[in-house]
């Protein structure tokens, strides 16, 4: 089957690219932890911060604003030259904003709104440098297959986070879920830095030992 053959070739190309393989696991874990958060924003705003419908609207608007503004900043700035370091920082920022959101008292809604902005921005700051590295380091004829494999892996990891978050939130509470998700994301940022530090200066070509 051509689809399976393309995925196999994409995996072979990824496996030969040591920096990409190093960042792949932290990316998957980040997706599992990050994706449920947006779905839980309304629940946190309503149940923990005692918000109403307009509170949810503000949260969603500010989160989207973080995504948009960070995209504009990346477009003008171009990002850090040490792309994997930038990705690690972005995961750390994501974790810190998530942890703070879960640790806030019920009166801390507006601080939560600020955290939502950084949650939106950090997702862009994580994905853009990694995708840019893929474009630079993978041969053009293999790029579509590698991107397809990456997107498939990310898409399959999203429901895992949602499936876990739902029942756990019912037991421990949504704010506690945010807190410990933040802790896990910060640990993941450290893991990403450890795994990718040796590849800070790698740009156009895969690292070969």
Description:
- This protein is mainly α.
- It has one domain (2-199): MFS general substrate transporter like domains (Growth Hormone, Chain: A).
- Helix content is 84%, strand content 0%.
- It has 7 helices and no strands.
- It has helices spanning 2-15, 18-48, 53-77, 83-103, 109-137, 140-172, 174-196.
- α3 (53-77) runs parallel beside α5 and α6 packs antiparallel against α7.
- The longest helix is centred in the last third of the chain and has 33 residues, at 140-172.
- The radius of gyration is 18 Å and the shape is globular.
- Mean pLDDT is 88; it is low at 204-209.
- GO terms for molecular function: transmembrane transporter activity.
- It is a multi-pass membrane protein.
- Its main location: membrane.
